[in-house]
Specification:
There is one protein chain. It is built from 7 helices and 2 strands. It has a two-stranded parallel ribbon with strand order 1-2. Helix 3 runs antiparallel to helix 4 and helix 3 runs antiparallel to helix 5. The longest helix has 64 residues. About 3% of the residues have low confidence.
């Protein structure tokens, strides 16, 4: 009702200002556009696969609850009161869990809503960006969506820009694809080079690799020499400590003998 009122207000506004200049109006069919965008169909297939998986899980749990109820009904006559209450409590808990899962998957803020928004929003953004671009270029004052609840009693096909929106999206896709290939080419500079250029690059890379290897070898040699020098110094220090200790013991022994 609000959308119909909005349409009436817009038409009245356009009529009032008609004397100033002609109003440019166009419309689209969002359902038609989305059905012809490959990414949207892929997103829908992904969402439907997830929904089927969630429904199967809920159906399996619901069937399990029904089996528990049937078993309880058949065994109730031979069960004690405590066992009956225990089984009823188990069934009640599983029913609560089932309702929780239903809300988690299909509630107003559930997984289905989140996944649909995540998958479809980028595609809707493509469509809206295309409409904005076309509207600015063609200087449209209003663009309506024929597939919404907005009632359009008559629409002239010449004002339908749905195919133009699709063409704009395709053009943007081609531009993005060219940019991607350009980036890949920058990341892989050897593509498109002549054999001589490739050979020169290979030689340069080999020379750099040899230089790095030589530097690492020198570092290793220096480290080994330093380690050997430190070891020799430690051996000399230990020899000196041993001599001092031997001299100390000798003096102590001579002192004892004199006493």
């Amino acid at each position: 009702m609000k959308k119909i009122f909005l349409l009436v207000v817009l038409i009245l506004s356009a009529s009032i200002s008609w004397s100033q200049r002609n109003q440019l109006i166009a419309y689209i069919d969002m359902e038609y556009i989305l059905e012809n965008v490959p990414e949207y169909l892929e997103a829908q297939n992904t969402l439907e696969a997830k929904i089927a998986k969630w429904r199967k899980k809920l159906d399996d749990q619901e069937r399990h609850i029904e089996v528990l109820k049937t078993d309880l009904a058949n065994e109730k006559a031979i069960l004690t009161k405590d066992l009956i209450e225990e089984k009823e409590e188990e069934i009640s808990l599983k029913q609560v869990e089932l309702r929780r899962l239903e809300s988690l998957y299909f509630g107003p803020k559930g997984d289905m809503f989140s996944v649909r928004k995540q998958l479809v929003k980028p595609i809707q953004d493509q469509v809206y960006n295309a409409i904005q671009s076309i509207s600015k270029r063609k200087k449209y004052d209003f663009v309506f969506d024929k597939s919404t609840d907005l009632v359009m009693l008559y629409s002239n096909k010449k004002y339908d820009i749905s195919d133009l929106v699709l063409a704009t999206i395709d053009r943007s896709r081609l531009i993005d694809e060219k940019d991607r290939k350009r980036q890949e080419k920058l990341l892989a500079p050897e593509k498109g080079l002549t054999d001589r250029q490739k050979e020169a690059i290979s030689k340069k890379e080999a020379a750099n690799a040899k230089k790095i290897a030589d530097i690492e070898a020198k570092k290793k040699l220096i480290a080994e020499k330093r380690e050997k020098l430190l070891q020799q110094r430690e051996e000399k220090r230990q020899l000196l400590r041993d001599k001092k200790e031997a001299l100390r013991k000798k003096k102590e022994q001579e002192k004892k003998e004199q006493e």
